[in-house]
């Protein structure tokens, strides 16, 4: 019998389904019944039948229509989230696009839920087109095509929002009528079928943007929450919208841009930023479980090498680990041990995690500039290669910490973090999964920007491959999230073997959060839902939200003299007394 895992508030519920023709609405109410049954006060819900809720996929946050049948929209073991309708609506807000102020954060939030006019294009740029054939020429753009699975509705919304933002600058030769129809389609979530493969990032993302435009013209396939996938013209009609009718130059305006590269790159940057700061918290728990020292994070040490990311990470470790602010019984238990220093994977977290943060900040600045630029040619592709290489380090060092947690000769804990080893394998295979993801990332981190090919009869003879750079950067980030989810599970399991000793208050709060969705590992069980549940916590940034107040409070309470030394604190004026100068040849 198929079953589905449903997330309500902070609880995960397994809901079996005898008949796949039941609706999503049935699944939601069935999950709510199980949720209230487990609560002494019914979870504050008086009458399940009166609850108005929104159902959405846990992966990607795509909305599910309550009238859709389960067999049409879900697969066995899919994860679904139920949210109160009022809460879901309250999170929506208007965003005004002016072509200048959109950020990568805004763009990702939106996803939740003369040449080319009288001439041909590329190799045909010197072929003059008669006036009476201009309309046909404009339409012929859209013979461009991609292959592969379609982008998710969320990513297609980002793509459409970003194209609207660029056209809003007013430099692309598009009419207000066409732009307004694009905005109407976006607000109705009428989203074209855009395959993910097929762009080389030459004069931008010609092929995928052609698919985006086709749907707006009433051609090909489209999706909306109201209609699902259907012929584009019927989807537009169902929402009272008219297809776009292109004028000269508008075809080029719609397809010549870097919006697929940039929108996927923006998502990669935002997710990388979220997992990077949560990686510090996870590593701090691991250090506690492995009985490491916090001395390596002393502010004076890092002030001597003042890279911004490194200083920030060291400060977070100090805020979370044993101190006068938050004493740790675990730390106290080994205060006078004979260990001289910890392994690199623990004591060098500020150096490794720090440079990842600096890499993400660098990439985000480029992406935010590209988001608000009226340019047809890619400049962000090398930055996305850089991002993938940088953020991969979080998974590489995390996998080594998982090994230390699972290896009894390194952790002084039971092998693979489980009692009755042999009968139970514990985290053995989870560590293998982490190792495989790290190994896959090593291949994905090969820079796509070094692999240019000539296209369009050598007219576009040096292309960016930026679309692939963005897609694989996203995949690398997802693997990093999954590896760190496994480390967080393993670290919390390690705490079980140190009880009744307690760690610091902020780290105990993180432990409690994990235990709200995953029980301790007593004997072997199906681990995939546990990993998915903790991965979901990381995607929602709940680990960060729990620890952030403690980090901010610690940072605010730092005395001025204990803050890292700023390079601007030194005077660069000439010394009062003359000194001998050394000339370098």
From TrEMBL:
Its EC number(s): 4.3.1.3
Pathway of action: Amino-acid degradation; L-histidine degradation into L-glutamate; N-formimidoyl-L-glutamate from L-histidine: step 1/3
Origin: domain of life: Eukaryota
GO molecular function, one term: histidine ammonia-lyase activity
Keyword list, A-Z: Histidine metabolism, Lyase
Gene3D superfamilies: Fumarase/aspartase (Central domain), Fumarase/aspartase (N-terminal domain), Phosphatidylinositol 3-kinase Catalytic Subunit, Chain A, domain 1
Catalytic activity: L-histidine = trans-urocanate + NH4(+)
The UniProt record lists the keyword Cell inner membrane: no
Entry's Gene Ontology BP terms: L-histidine catabolic process to glutamate and formamide; L-histidine catabolic process to glutamate and formate
PROSITE patterns linked: PAL_HISTIDASE
Cellular component terms (Gene Ontology): cytoplasm
Enzyme class: lyase
Pfam families associated with the record: Lyase_aromatic, Par3_HAL_N_term
Signal peptide: none
InterPro entries: Aromatic_Lyase (IPR001106), Fumarase/histidase_N (IPR024083), HutH (IPR005921), L-Aspartase-like (IPR008948), Par3/HAL_N (IPR021922), Phe/His_NH3-lyase_AS (IPR022313)
Domain Par3/HAL N-terminal stretches: 5-80
Family in the record: Belongs to the PAL/histidase family.
Matching PANTHER family: HISTIDINE AMMONIA-LYASE (PTHR10362)
Protein name (Swiss-Prot/TrEMBL): Histidine ammonia-lyase
Species assigned in the record: Oncorhynchus mykiss (Rainbow trout)
């Amino acid at each position: 019998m198929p079953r589905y895992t449903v997330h309500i508030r902070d609880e995960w519920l397994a809901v079996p389904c005898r008949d796949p023709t039941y609706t999503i609405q049935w699944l939601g109410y069935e999950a709510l019944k199980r949720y209230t049954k487990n609560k002494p006060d019914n979870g504050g819900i008086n009458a399940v039948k009166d609850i108005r809720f929104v159902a959405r996929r846990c992966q990607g946050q795509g909305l599910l229509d309550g009238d859709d049948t389960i067999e049409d929209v879900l697969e066995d073991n899919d994860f679904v989230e139920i949210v109160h309708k009022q809460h879901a609506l309250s999170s929506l807000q208007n965003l005004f696009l002016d072509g200048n102020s959109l950020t990568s954060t805004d763009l990702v939030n939106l996803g939740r839920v003369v040449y080319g006019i009288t001439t041909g294009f590329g190799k045909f740029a010197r072929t003059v087109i008669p006036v009476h054939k201009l309309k046909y020429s404009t339409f012929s753009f859209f013979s461009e095509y991609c292959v592969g699975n379609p982008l998710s509705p969320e990513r297609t919304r980002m793509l459409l929002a970003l194209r609207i933002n660029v056209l809003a600058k007013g430099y692309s030769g598009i009419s207000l009528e066409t732009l307004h129809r694009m905005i109407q389609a976006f607000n109705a979530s009428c989203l074209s079928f855009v395959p993910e493969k097929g762009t080389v990032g030459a004069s931008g993302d010609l092929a995928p943007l052609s698919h985006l435009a086709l749907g707006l013209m009433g051609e090909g396939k489209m999706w909306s929450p109201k209609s699902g996938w259907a012929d584009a013209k019927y989807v537009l009609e169902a929402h009272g919208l008219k297809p776009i009718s292109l004028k000269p130059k508008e075809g080029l305006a719609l397809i010549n841009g870097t919006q697929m590269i940039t929108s996927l790159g923006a998502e990669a940057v935002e997710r990388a930023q979220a997992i990077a700061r949560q990686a510090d918290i996870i590593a701090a728990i691991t250090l506690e479980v492995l009985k490491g020292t916090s001395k390596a994070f002393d502010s004076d040490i890092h002030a001597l090498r003042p890279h911004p990311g490194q200083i920030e990470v060291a400060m977070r470790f100090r805020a979370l680990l044993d101190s006068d602010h938050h004493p740790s019984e675990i730390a106290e238990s080994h205060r006078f041990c004979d260990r001289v220093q910890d392994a690199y994977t623990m004591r060098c977290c500020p150096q490794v995690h720090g440079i990842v943060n600096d890499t993400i900040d660098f990439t985000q600045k480029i992406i935010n500039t590209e988001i608000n630029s009226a340019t047809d040619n890619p400049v962000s592709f090398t930055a996305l290669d850089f991002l993938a290489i940088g953020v991969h380090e979080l998974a590489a060092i995390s996998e080594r910490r998982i090994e230390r947690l699972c290896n009894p000769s390194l952790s002084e804990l039971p092998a693979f973090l489980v009692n009755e080893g042999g009968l139970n394998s514990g985290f053995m295979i989870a560590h293998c999964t982490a190792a495989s993801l790290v190994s896959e990332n090593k291949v994905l981190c090969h820079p796509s920007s070094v692999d240019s090919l000539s296209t369009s009869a050598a007219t576009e003879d040096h292309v960016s491959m930026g679309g692939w750079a963005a897609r694989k950067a996203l995949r690398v980030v997802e693997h990093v999230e999954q590896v760190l989810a496994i480390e967080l599970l393993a670290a919390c399991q390690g705490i079980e073997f140190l009880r009744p000793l307690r760690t610091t208050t902020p780290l105990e709060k993180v432990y409690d959060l994990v235990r709200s969705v995953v029980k301790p590992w007593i004997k072997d069980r199906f681990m995939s839902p546990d990993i998915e549940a903790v991965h979901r916590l990381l995607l929602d940034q709940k680990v960060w939200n729990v620890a952030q107040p403690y980090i901010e409070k610690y940072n605010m309470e730092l005395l001025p003299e204990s803050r890292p030394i700023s390079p601007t604190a030194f005077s660069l004026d000439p010394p009062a007394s003359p000194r001998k100068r050394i000339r370098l040849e």
